[in-house]
Amino acid sequence: MSLVKSKKQRFPWMNGSIAKSFGLDDLFDDDFFTAERRLPAMNVKEHEDDFEIEFAVPGFSKEDFEVSMENDLLFVSAEKSKEDIEDDDDYTRKEFSYSSFYRTLQLPQSVDVSKDVKAGYKDGILKLQLLKSKEAAKTTRKRIDIS
After folding, report:
1. Which residues, at least 6 apart from 100, have a Cβ–Cβ distance to it below 8 Å?
2. CA pair distance 128, 51, nearest whole angstrom
3. Residue 64: which of 124, 146, 14, 134 has the closest Cα?
4. How many angstroms separate the CA atoms of 120 and 111, rounded?
5. Residue 42: which H helix or E strand, with range?
6. What is the torsion angle, in degrees rounded to the nearest 10, for the CA atoms of residue 8, residue 11, residue 17 and residue 22?
7. Average pLDDT of 34-44?
8. Do 107 and 76 meet the contact criterion of CB atoms below 8 Å apart?
9. What fold is seen in the domain 40-138?
10. 78 Cβ contact list (under 8 Å, min separation 6)
11. Residue 68 burial by CB count (10 A; 0-12/13-18/19+): exposed, middle or buried?
């Protein structure tokens, strides 16, 4: 006897392509319920004197963020919960929403952790500037030829 891998459809009466386009077979998969916990897109730019890190995090306010450093780790997190209520107690619509993320980055040795990190949030982009140590700023890159 051999084992055969099978994915049972939850909605067998629907055409497979229709179910996939609506995501119905994925309704109870782990990714469906954790969609709000996805990591934000991140850009890292290295300059001569610093690193600039950008996170794409629209929909948050600057009060929702917590940024900290410990040893050679950078911790960036945000949590937002929102409740919109219309028409008092006898409401016709009530919405709850919650979103959060947590990201930890290993900092290179060239970052000077004793210096302050500059942070700003504008137009859905969280920008962090991490200064390099003076010794790291003086080092130059050497090209190595491969024979």
Report:
1. 36, 37, 77, 78, 79, 80
2. 8
3. 124
4. 19
5. strand 42-46
6. -120
7. 74
8. no
9. Immunoglobulin-like (2.60.40)
10. 57, 60, 64, 65, 66, 99, 100, 101
11. exposed
Spatial separation of the C-alpha atoms in residues 147 and 20, rounded to whole Å: 51
Q: Are 59 and 45 in contact (CB under 8 A)?
A: no
**Which DSSP string do the residues of 48-114 spell out, in sequence order?**
SSEEEEEEE-TT--GGGEEEEEETTEEEEEEEEEEEEE-SGGG-S-EEEEEEEEEEEEEPPTTB-TT
| Beta bridge pairs of residue 121 | 126
Distances, alpha carbon 9 to alpha carbons 3, 21, 24, 28, 93, in Å: 18, 14, 9, 12, 34
Q: Which two three-digit tokens encode residue 109?
A: 């040795």
Q: What is the pTM of this model?
A: 0.62
pLDDT single digits (tens) 44-98: 999 999 999 999 999 899 999 999 999 889 999 999 876 655 555 676 776 767 7
Q: Are strands 73-85 and 94-106 parallel, antiparallel or unpaired?
A: antiparallel
